[in-house]
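Class, carefully examine what follows:
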Amino acid sequence: MHASDDDDDDDDEYGCVIDTPSLEWLDIVDHREGYCIIENDMPKIMTASFDVNYSHYGEIMRSITSVKRLDLSIVIDMHM
């Protein structure tokens, strides 16, 4: 996973890019409003735990089709 929070960038964009097609276990905690890009599906994921902002939920769920155990906590920003 690559996370970006570049202080030199004036557009205030931050987020993460995940490119781990062979990963078997994944745990993500991210409550920021930045981007989350999944480069490849993760077909080998067996266990996943996500505590994420609502905007990241769909992108992550589409990439872990083979998960056997999932812990999910979604934060919804009521000011969106």
